[in-house]
Every structure is written in structure tokens, then in C-alpha cells.
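Researcher: Please translate sequence to C-alpha cells.
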Amino acid sequence: MLPFIRSDLAQFTAYKPHPSSDTADVATQFDRLDTNESPYDLPPELKEKLAWTYQQVIETNRYPDGGHETLKDVIAEYVNQSAALSSSLFTAANISVGNGSDELIRSLLVATCLGGEGSILVANPTFSMYGILAQTLGIPVVAVGRNETNFEIDISAAQSALEQTQNPPIRVVFVVHPNSPTANSLTEAELAWLRSLPEHILVVIDEAYFEFSEITLVGELAQRPNWVILRTFSKAFRLASLRIGYCVAHPEAIAILEKVRLPYNLPSFSIAAALVGLQNRTLLLESIPQTLSERAKLIEILSQQSELQITPSAANFIYLRLKPNGFNSQEAALKTFHQKLRTLGTLVRYISGGLRITVGTIEENARTVNRVKAALSNLSS
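Model: Translation complete:
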């Protein structure tokens, strides 16, 4: 280690982008079903509109709109509409915009736990960036488990952790609704527990997959100033490459986030793309029914494989595991299964004792089914 670097960083592993991120090498070789993106690019007419905007409107020698007021107004309109709320319930004062949800997560950590003031609580398996970002800031991470069958948070363990963790105490609880990688929505028991948490604990509810689950908790924010809801343009809105996330919260919480975020954090082109996406949301979200239909087909067909265990999904991906009695070494068999799928041409995410598979196009999903069957046959032989 270089002598001026924090000693604890030697123990960390950097987030490793998935192979599908290298589009120059991967695009024509693999079905990229490992990162929960939409399989559909922007429609050509929207790309043309953005190209015109870049050429005729954006001045690349000028800083972008650092206040995001126009974008926040349109996001607030969408949030209200998406939850069938009064058009005036949420305004720009309830919205903060980030360079992906990752930046917003980091800002929330800076605003709550930095300087030894707090720890965070997560229930694994879940989105890894909560823990990774906390550790890079020197913030302790307290992890509890989940039910092995339905992946519900171990609420008893979580409550005990809140009561027993001191120096520093837990200040933030992170949950995903529906969870990644396991695709399950929060249960009534989990929601009751979150609602019971005192106001000095921040509850961050990540709704990255809201457009697929169509279940949101934004309607409760007005009564819960200690709740923050995260959303993203990277999934259903097909803008993963442009890194746009947003959060919805009490205006006082938003004001704090505005204090700690970096200035000019969204490039002008990303702002323009988010606006175009929201203005054309009916067109972009037309693909969701097909994704849900394809998800149901994948679950139905793959559930017929005796070696597989698949749980219900409320997102644009499925999570499958190998049944425990089928193989001598569960972990080794799963790794072999994962590698075989890659060899056959399908990239999926190996995580937490299972495989997370994004729902792709009709053609990609048909290939996925055939390749899963071939890979299982290879495991059994």
C-alpha cells in the first residue's frame, strides 16, 4: 500500500463491472442477461431527437444545468402519476437527481453516517453497492440474513441488530422493493417492521424495478419523513448508459442531499435523455407487458427442470438455485453451471448461491431455455 492511503482499503475489493459492460467485445458474442438492463435500445425516433438536441441545443463548452429544476419538475409529475396521487403532492422540492442511484446512495451515507456517526443495516443477499459504498467511506456494515425459502428479511435478527449495535449505532436501513438478486417484493411483515422504526433511523427503499412490479411506497412518504425512495432510469426507461437516478423524500432531506452532492453531477446529454424518456414514457414502457409475459414463460418452463428451484419474481429478472439434493457439491455445481452458460453464449449473474437471469428478448429467452437445459444435462453427465 502507498503510505498515504487508508490502511483499511487494502481489505476491500473494487466493484468489478460485468463482462457485458465491454460492448466492443461482447455485443455479438453473448446474450447479455447479467445486469438487469432492458434488452431494448431506445427507439430510433428518440435517438434521432437526442442527436438533434446534442447538435442544436447543447453547448458542450458550457456547464450543465446544476439545479435540475426542469427535470425535477417532470420527475415529480411522473412520481405522482405513477402512484395515482394528487398532481401537487410531490414537487421538485421532493426530488434529488444523481449520477445513477449509486451517487444518491453515497450522498445519503455522507449525510447520515460519516465521521463515525452511524452504521448501516442490510439483509443479504441484496444489492451489493450499499455495503461497498459504505465501506469505502469507512462506515460499518451490519448484515442479517433472509428466509431461505421466500427471502423475507430475518426481522428478529434485524431488530436485535438495531437494538444491540452501538459505537456507532445503525442510522440507515437499506431495502430493495423488489429485492435484487432474489426478485421478491417486501412482505406485509417487513413493511410493518419498517413502519415501526423510529424517526432517527433513515429507511431507504430502492424501487429500481418499480415499473415491473408496479408496487410503490411513495404514497407513504408524506407521513414518513425518515423514508427515502430511490428510482432509476437505467431499467425500464432504457437509459442505463447515461447514469440517471433520482430519489423522492421530504423536502428537508432533499435540501441536505443537495448540500452534499457534487455540482454539475449530471451531464447535459443525460439530462436531455431523461427528459425525452419521461416525455415519451408511454412509448418506452410499452415493452413492459412483453417482459412480464416472457418472465412468466421462463419461470413456467424452467420450473419443469427437476434440478432447479425458482422463486416468484416481481422484477425483470428471475433467480434460480440448484435443488440441494441433486449434486455432491452445491457450490461447485453452480459455478460449473454458470460457466457452461457463458460458454454456450449466455451471460448471467452468479450471486449468493444462485443465478440471476435478466428477462431478455423473445429470441434471447428461447436460447436461454435451451442453454439452461444443455448446461444441466452437462452437470448430470
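Researcher: Any highlights?
Model: The chain is about 40% helix and 15% strand.
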